[in-house]
Amino acid sequence: MRVLFIGGTGFISSAVSRQVIDKGYELYLLNRGLRSSGIPASITLTADIHELKSMQVALKNLNFDVVVDWIAYSPEDIERNLAIFSGRTEQFVFISSASAYQKPPKHYLITESTPLENPYWDYSRNKIACEERLMKAYRDQGFPVTIVRPSLTYDTNFPIAIGGWGCYTLADRMKKGLPIIVHGDGSSLWVVTHAEDFSRGFIELLGNERVLGEAFHITTDEVLNWDQIYQTIAGALGVEANIVHIPSDFIVKVAPSFTGSLYGDKMWSTVFDNTKIKSFVPGFQANIPFSEGIRRTVEWFEADKSRQLINEAVNVEMNRIIRAYSAT
């Protein structure tokens, strides 16, 4: 099977790329070529994804059994995809986001039929608009779309709400005994899924004509609260977490950049019903508990000091929020 990933080198997509190769599929990775894919046996196509002519030149006359766009964020991206891939793929998989589900949720248990509605986060609203355009193309022209909505998924990153994304800043603070922020009182429920578990469900959707016109989320069934998530990270680092609980409303007031990620996602208790993915992929079960998965993440960072990047802007912002809250 010939598979094209637009992107394919992120936290989630890298894990999926490796499993695609292990499955024996022919994998093409289309990106700007700014960094090595790190995926042996994949074929790199270099193009500026936002330029139609650049992509057409890179793709030449290639057709694909499956195309997966990991980095489409706007309806304009979808129009580009429709223009390029209509008639040249048997399946187009759009990576949406579980943050598109109704906020605030009317029920903590989320299914694929939960309404898509997020008044707080442009990112989520754009993903919703992308889904709507693709489903219209499916209904009107038979465009072969499948939609997948990841939630908070991790591998070589720390799955956190506050503390920096894709860096070592939170871990560094924990190891130094510095205070870290947990929004609310730390008791709201959440789900964090290892990328390998996500991949095992995802890969079975590829080339499956039964899933055309369908939407799925793929998560673990393990449910934790936010205190447990941060405490488990600290445990993997061999330290105690110095947690400061700060209401989400206060965080957003002091640092409005968190409005989307908190009000539009992580402040609400959210648990996912995985019945649908299990019905389409018999035998699927996420089996990496967070305590094991985050241990692997810590080992990955500790294997190479150059990976332990500290974002001082994150430290400055966390310290500012903590100082402001201490002054109340």
Report on this model:
With 328 residues, the protein is of the alpha/beta class. It folds into two domains: 2-152 and 193-216, Rossmann fold; 156-191 and 222-270 and 289-326, UDP-galactose 4-epimerase, domain 1. Helices cover 39% and strands 15% of the residues. It has helices spanning 11-22, 52-59, 75-85, 122-141, 169-175, 195-202, 226-237, 248-254, 259-266, 275-280, 290-302, 312-326, and strands spanning 2-6, 26-31, 43-46, 66-69, 92-95, 109-110, 145-148, 153-154, 180-183, 189-190, 193-194, 215-216, 224-225, 243-246, 271-272. Strand 4, helix 3 and strand 5 (92-95) form a beta-alpha-beta unit. The N and C termini lie far apart (60 Å). The mean pLDDT is 95.
The structural domain count equals 2
Tell me the number of helical segments per DSSP (H or I, 4 or more residues long). Answer: 12
Q: Evaluate the radius of gyration.
A: 20 Å
Give the neighbour order of strands across the main sheet: 3-2-1-4-5-7-12
Considering the protein shown, what is the CATH homologous superfamily of the largest domain? NAD(P)-binding Rossmann-like Domain
The pLDDT mean sits at 95
Order of helices and strands: EHEEHEHEEHEEHEEEHEEHEHHEHHH
Task: Briefly characterize the structure.
The chain has 328 residues and is of the alpha/beta class. 39% of the residues lie in helices and 15% in strands. The chain starts with a strand and ends with a helix.
Annotation keywords:
single chain; 328 residues; alpha/beta; Rossmann fold; UDP-galactose 4-epimerase, domain 1; seven-stranded parallel sheet; 15 strands; 39% helix; globular
